[in-house]
Sequence to fold (154 residues):
Amino acid sequence: MELVISARDGTGPRSLTALETGYQYITPRWSFDDRLIAYQRGTASAFDIFVISVDGGSSRQLTQHGARLEGLAWSPNRPRIVFASSRGSTIWYLPKTNLWVVDADGSEPRQLTFGEESYTYPDTNAKGMLLVNRVRRQFDIWRYPVDNSPAENV
Fold:
């Protein structure tokens, strides 16, 4: 498996690097200066962010989250990535995700949001504005009668 880039019209495809088998590779994103590509690599619900130069070579792992990631976006004014991660959540299925930021060299990962809502699939524009989905999940337990006939129970 390879990471391949081309012109927008599909011409001039070229391989940047070979990708390890056994992983999912999702959400590739160009940096605003068009010099780097970031992507998520993982299995099931444990992903991390990698970055590679458009000149090719080896990918560099930026995060050590090993958690569910829900999107990433480049910051336009400095080489850093904003991403949504379930790191720290104690719920495996539909965990809460918060926004994090990490520099493109992998240094200074830090959490940006906290609370009960999840923040997912961040995006940025050239002016540095951040757009995210805010998700609030609520689970309720319902009790239904089962002692009578089906028609009477409902």
About this structure: The chain has a mean pLDDT of 90. Residues 150-153 form the longest helix (4 residues). The first strand starts at residue 2 and ends at 5. The CA atoms of residues 88 and 140 lie 23 Å apart.
